[in-house]
């Protein structure tokens, strides 16, 4: 698998004030270009784009490309779980919305202190492990937003997971609250595969790069003007 994924959380919109108004024609072009260039990994989640992202994945990806040509990931929304029955209901809904019979990766979404307590109370790890045994999931794991110590605790208590999704980029690498480097080191200590999210921090690092280029260009122009004046 090529090491670049297609996230379905910030899709093009027809109306910037309506997250559900996904521009499907533009998305289809993006999906086709992505696959034509040899990439396969797509990541969505239950609540993205006002609960429309998984449907968009079905329409732009699943219906238009063979199942063996892509890898699809979605997530169990811990923030919407009240009972164990919710997990079965939501999982079946996700299969239908995505139009697939199985998920390549299925993650417990957004684990931190409070969401881990929910997952433990409702036996969410057992649920996804059972779905894996049933053939409905190929690999199981969780996405994570908290400190390295809690991550170590979770991976110690749940060695059955295959993968962990972490927020990693150069700006957050040594951030004291996000702890990208420390979390990365913990995941590697437990020999878990890592899926990187926010590699350009929601696009802000691209903006930062463009700003740096602009400032450097202005600085270079100033140097030329100063040299010209001195001559």
From TrEMBL:
Name a Pfam family for this protein.
Aldo_ket_red
Q: Which residues form the NADP-dependent oxidoreductase domain?
A: 3-206
Using the record for this protein, list the coiled-coil segments as residue ranges, or answer none: none
| GO MF entry, a single one | oxidoreductase activity
**InterPro entries, per database record:** AKR, AKR2_Oxidoreductase, NAD(P)_OxRdtase_dom_sf, NADP_OxRdtase_dom
Entry-linked PANTHER family: D-THREO-ALDOSE 1-DEHYDROGENASE, OXIDOREDUCTASE
Which protein, by its recorded name, is this? Answer: Aldo/keto reductase family protein
Source organism (scientific name): Fonticella tunisiensis
